[in-house]
Amino acid sequence: MHLEHAACVSRWRPVSPAAKGLFALAGLIAAFAAPTPGGALAVAGLLVAVAFLAAGIPVPTYLRAAAAPLVFLALSSLSLALSLGGAEAGGLALAGAPDGGAQLGQVGSRSLAGLAALLLLVLTTPLPDLIALLRRLKTPALLLDLMVLGYRLLSVFSTAVHDTLTAQTARLGYATRRRAWRSLAGLVANLAVQVWQRAQALHVAAQARNNDGPLRFMARTFPHARRDSLLALAAGALLIAIGQLA
């Protein structure tokens, strides 16, 4: 839930989700349209600078959100730089792939820029605003309902974990290693029961309303949505131009 908290306290929280979506889309286009790795890296650097300087995202929060995707990207890049071939003794051996460096630079730089664009969007836009934007874009209602239910269960899960850990810590449940293992087992069992009960309650509530239509919520209004969209279009066009010229 740290991503959601960062989005709620971001400087761009009052900005229209459509404008932020347009700018993120422009970042993706600039990333994959860049003719050279240097252009894609320039786009990535600009997006990171915008996240820090304009959106006010704290550096630790950004790095925490980017850690898992960066590890996945690093592991995936190994398949481009290395190839698996037969050794002279009849076994298998790793060797540098032909043109692996060029492919690694092109794909890696574009992936970094695309990741920076998506992180800028998710770290400045809470999920309810994203869901409202997707509803305006005619996203299938079933998919949006699943997103809403998942978001709700994730919030309940996070609250339950925090409350249980606080109660166990107050009773010195983690004072020793033996107590820590016992408390951890109790935490997992308690969470399993709570998630099951919450899911069952949501199922009963859906049956009570006869599953009649999609879930609806009040969407926020953004008074400067048109101005924000125009600025996002201008900034996105500049970003694409920089990617082409860098």
**Structural class, from secondary structure content?**
mainly alpha
**Order of strands, widest sheet:** 1-2
Query: Based on CA inertia axes, which overall geometry fits?
Result: globular
Helices and strands, in order, run as HHHHEEHHHHH
Mean pLDDT: 84
Q: How widely separated are the two ends?
A: 36 Å
> What's the structural domain tally?
2
H/I helix tally: 9
Architecture overview:
With 246 residues, the chain is mostly helical. The chain folds into 2 domains: 2-82 and 98-125 and 223-245, no CATH class; 139-208. The chain is 74% helix and 4% strand. The protein is built from 9 helices and 2 strands, in the order ααααββααααα. It has helices spanning 2-8, 17-33, 37-54, 59-81, 100-122, 127-136, 141-170, 177-208, 225-245, and strands at 82-86, 92-96. A two-stranded antiparallel sheet has the order 1-2. β1 (82-86) and β2 form a beta hairpin. The longest helix has 32 residues, at 177-208. It is globular and about 60 Å long. 21% of the residues are buried. The mean pLDDT is 84.
Primary descriptors:
246 residues; mainly alpha; 2 domains; two-stranded antiparallel ribbon; 9 helices; globular
Summarize the structure.
By secondary structure, the chain is mainly alpha-helical. Helices cover 74% and strands 4% of the residues.
